[in-house]
Write a structure and sequence with these properties.
The complex is a heterodimer. By secondary structure, chain A is an alpha+beta fold. In chain A, about 60% of the residues lie in helices and about 10% in strands. In chain A, helix 1 (about 15-25) links the parallel strand 1 and strand 2. Chain A starts with 5 loop residues before the first strand and ends with a helix. Helix content of chain B is about 55%, strand content about 10%. By secondary structure, chain B is an alpha+beta fold. In chain B, helix 1 (about 15-25) links the parallel strand 1 (about 5-10) and strand 2. Classes of the chains: A alpha+beta, B alpha+beta. The interface of A and B includes residues 69, 101 and 134 of A.
Chain lengths: ~220, ~220
């Protein structure tokens, strides 16, 4: 099979970009990483993702793919060794279901908490906690987290990227959704996840991330006035 | 598999159950349909979808699955004849991207133009129209999103041809502007005329009444 040219447009502070990087690492794919300045979006980014104007964008022989879950499924379709998604169709579907839940009911909602204040923020925080309760109760009740490769598969990538970023978001923005005493199963899983070498080796420095989210928070509050 | 038992928990007025029905029909899969009496959710529904408590839920040999697009991909991967998803990885990525775009961009804006009023409504209407226009580009000169025949993306978004038109009628907005997006408009018509697709549609007059009532309830009883 011929070599494809792979580029990844990303940002050091994005958990969604990190997901794609883990997927590429699991497959051993060589790629060119291009750091984007989100405050000043490049013509390159706007050209490759005119619809959402966001990172990550994977570029395969000049053809772009956006949206991290779509990108990861593409990576798994394209490079068949070391499967990321479960092989069994039912288990794949369960993984996809939970990935969607985490993105829609956790990631998006925490994002809303970051970008809102007052009653709106309270509502988002409450919803995030409820979502964690569901994850603790339903996702971890049976051994639903299916590992692949280095003990890390699709669902682990999705949940893990969110969980590793969350403490920095909470600290930077000044709200709390994750109580480790309330969610012991999730907490244990997160702790183990952070020990995986693929995760550990290049996480952004905690203080840099916290500072970044603090800046976001200042900006949000300033523009709300 | 010798004895495949397939059940679908749905609701007659749900477009998400409808798109699963389309997938099952296109594959020629025999299934038992169980109508939920929403909003009185059955114990069975709450047991099979404890996370979201919604329809549709597909149950295959006792194992439940929720989220219509996830279900459709499951159906495609389990019954592999008449494939719905393209073969090429990049084409598959495009199909998934656009299905996500329709669900996350076209649908909320359509809903807002349906339930809001005044300036908010106008803004939502415009946004929905622009998002539909963007969707049109995904056809790339083909008769259907799946190419010469229909595929995953057609059944993922075809329902909007009914529901967005209902919103247009009830809320008096323009979303699928025929002159602004003639190609998309034609595609909706052609898709909904296909016998397999048309046969499964719920009665329009019943949908109209149902959604009018739904809107009144959401807008606090005022028309």
């Amino acid at each position: 099979m011929g070599e494809v040219e792979v580029k990844l447009l990303g940002s050091w502070m994005s958990p969604f970009v990190r997901r794609v990087q883990w997927a590429l690492k699991l497959k051993g794919v060589t790629y060119e990483y291009l750091e984007e300045d989100l405050k000043k979006k490049s013509p390159r980014l706007l050209n490759y993702n005119p619809i959402h104007k966001k990172i990550p964008v994977l570029v395969i022989d000049g053809k772009p793919i956006a949206e991290s879950p779509v990108i990861i499924e593409f990576i798994d379709d394209m490079w068949k060794h070391n499967p990321i998604l479960p092989i069994d169709p039912y288990e794949r579907s369960v993984a996809r279901f939970w990935a969607k839940f985490i993105d829609e009911k956790l990631s998006n909602v925490v994002r809303m908490a970051l970008f809102s204040e007052g009653e709106e923020q309270e509502k988002a925080v409450k919803e995030s906690i409820e979502s964690f309760e569901i994850v603790e109760r339903e996702l971890f009740k049976e051994k639903t987290l299916i590992g692949a490769g280095e003990g890390i598969g699709y669902l682990e990538i999705i949940l893990g990227s969110f969980c590793t970023w969350l403490p920095a978001i909470e600290e930077g923005a000044g709200f709390k959704v994750f109580d480790s005493n309330k969610f012991p199963l999730v907490n244990k899983w997160m702790t183990d996840f952070l020990e995986l070498s693929i995760v550990k080796e290049d996480l952004p420095p905690r203080d840099r991330l916290v500072s970044y989210f603090q800046q976001i928070r200042h900006f949000v509050l300033a523009t709300k006035k | 598999m010798a004895e495949d038992k397939v059940q679908l928990l749905g609701y007659w007025g749900s477009p998400f159950a409808l798109r699963v029905k389309w997938a099952l029909k296109l594959k020629g899969i025999q299934y038992e349909y169980l109508e939920e009496d929403l909003p009185n959710k059955s114990p069975m529904l709450l047991e099979l979808n404890p996370v979201l408590k919604k329809v549709p839920v597909l149950v295959h040999n006792g194992k439940p699955l929720a989220e219509s697009l996830v279900i459709i991909e499951y159906i495609d991967e389990t019954w592999t004849h008449n494939p719905l998803m393209p073969k090429d990885p990049y084409d598959r990525a495009k199909a998934r991207f656009w299905a996500k775009f329709a669900d996350e961009k076209c649908v909320p804006a359509t809903m807002s133009s349906f339930t809001k009023s005044g300036e908010e409504k106008e803004k939502a209407e415009k946004e929905a129209r622009e998002n539909f226009k963007t969707l049109e580009s995904a056809l790339e000169g083909k008769p259907f999103f799946g190419g010469e025949g229909i595929g995953f993306l057609d059944i993922a978004i075809g329902w909007l041809g009914i529901w967005a038109r209902l919103v247009e009628e009830i809320a008096e907005v323009t979303l699928i502007a025929d002159d602004y997006m003639p190609v998309l408009s034609k595609w909706f018509k052609d898709f909904l005329e296909l016998p397999t697709i048309k046969e499964a549609l719920p009665p329009r007059d019943k949908l109209l009444v149902h959604n009018k009532g739904f809107r009144e309830m959401l807008m606090g009883g005022s028309t």
